[in-house]
Amino acid sequence: MKLEQIVHSDPEIMSGELVFVGARVPARNLLDYLEGGDSLEEFLENFTSVTRDQAVAFLEEAGRALLARVS
Fold first, then answer.
1. Which residues, in sequence order, are bridge partners of residue 2?
2. Whole-model pTM above 0.85?
3. Hey, where are the domains in the chain?
4. What φ, ψ does residue 16 adopt, rounded to 5°?
5. Predicted pLDDT of residue 71
6. What is the mean pLDDT of each run of 10 residues along the chain (71 residues)?
7. Closest by CA position to 12, among listed 28, 24, 29, 27
8. Mutual orientation of helices 52-70 and 27-35 as an angle, nearest 10°?
9. How far does Cα 61 stand from its chain's mean position?
10. CATH topology for 3-65?
11. Cβ of 65: how many Cβ atoms within 10 Å?
12. Dihedral, CA atoms, 15, 37, 60, 1, nearest 10 degrees?
């Protein structure tokens, strides 16, 4: 999945916060859920406009970015 299909930032949407494409759901919400001990399933149940593919792709991209920083 291409990055532009996963998340985007637009100053007209949620003050430019990074959100999932097609949803007004901040990507930060997914991280907050996982940090709080909730599952990906719980996040997807509560934010039905975010697809599983988007959520998984976002986590994969975030992991790659982090690993690239330490390499």
1. none
2. yes
3. 3-65
4. 85, 5
5. 72
6. 93 95 96 98 98 97 91 72
7. 24
8. 80
9. 9
10. Arc Repressor Mutant, subunit A (1.10.10)
11. 9
12. -60
Residue type, 53: D
HEC secondary structure over the chain: CCHHHHEECCCCCHHHCCEECCCCCEHHHHHHHHHCCCCHHHHHHHCCCCCHHHHHHHHHHHHHHHHHHHC
Distance separating alpha carbons of residues 57 and 62, to the nearest angstrom: 9
pLDDT reported for residue 17: 96
Res 70: pLDDT: 85
Please answer whether residues 46 and 70 qualify as being in contact, where contact means their C-beta atoms are separated by less than 8 angstroms.
no
